[in-house]
Design a protein that fits this description.
Length: 250
């Protein structure tokens, strides 16, 4: 037959185990419940079988263990918060710096698309471009024709395949090199480079502003001090070819 003291001890042990498993800081089964049961045990113990000193000491040790669990939880939470704060990039360090990174999205605002980045061709190549909405559905496909070797800027007039202006939002895209039969050959890498002149937040996430382009800091692969405009050997400013698409095609 189990005595009232043994029953209470078993309850206290179960209480301690429950706390360790739940790890709750609100203390639904922690300090207060433990002390309440301990006091109740002392008040209602069997006079003919009083609580042994060793049993009382063991139960106080259980309470001390609970206190340590609370302290450990608090310390771990503080460490987590510190690590989280350190993992957030300091976007201000990018201001005024020259950066380059990958980009595969454009923003449409008031029917105007901006921020397409650029791609490079090592030889004349036939190129096509596909644009997708936030759900991954294709809204526009354009055949850009055969382009010369060099750098080309991605441009889209914000219209879908029906020549209607798309809704404002962010659209992803891919630029595709075509084979001789007009089929898919490989996807071209699209990049953005320039001086960071601002920071913008969308849905609580910080992005870098490079002109009209919005760039995720995680896509940055190179950063350096901003330089003045470089000139070529003839003394004229170096320029980038711009790929334009006829309005009927775009």
């Amino acid at each position: 037959m189990i005595s009232s003291t043994e029953s209470t001890n078993n309850s206290l042990s179960a209480l301690s185990s429950a706390y360790v498993e739940t790890q709750k800081t609100e203390d639904p089964l922690g300090r207060d419940a433990f002390l309440t049961m301990l006091v109740a045990q002392l008040e209602h113990q069997d006079p003919l079988n009083p609580l042994e000193g060793t049993d009382f000491t063991a139960q106080l040790a259980q309470f001390s263990s609970l206190e340590q669990q609370f302290a450990i939880n608090d310390n771990l939470e503080a460490i987590k918060e510190a690590l989280d704060s350190q993992s957030e990039p300091d976007l201000m360090q990018y201001i005024g710096k020259e950066v380059s990174g990958s980009i595969q999205s454009m923003d449409v605002y008031d029917g105007i698309a901006s921020g397409g980045g650029s791609f490079s061709l090592s030889a004349p190549t036939s190129v096509a471009m596909a644009i997708y909405d936030e759900n991954g559905a294709e809204v526009r496909r354009m055949n850009l024709g055969q382009l010369d070797a060099g750098d080309h800027t991605v441009i889209w007039n914000g219209k879908d395949n029906d020549n209607s202006i798309v809704d404002d939002g962010t659209y992803s895209y891919e630029v595709i090199a075509l084979n001789d039969n007009g089929g898919y050959s490989y996807q071209l890498s699209t990049t953005v480079s320039g001086e960071v002149d601002g920071i913008v937040y969308k849905d609580g996430v910080g992005y870098l502003m490079i002109g009209s382009m919005i760039v995720n800091p995680s896509s940055i692969v190179e950063i350096s001090q901003a330089k003045t405009a470089e000139t070529d050997s003839a003394g004229t400013d170096a320029t980038t070819q711009t790929t334009t698409v006829d309005e009927d095609e775009a």
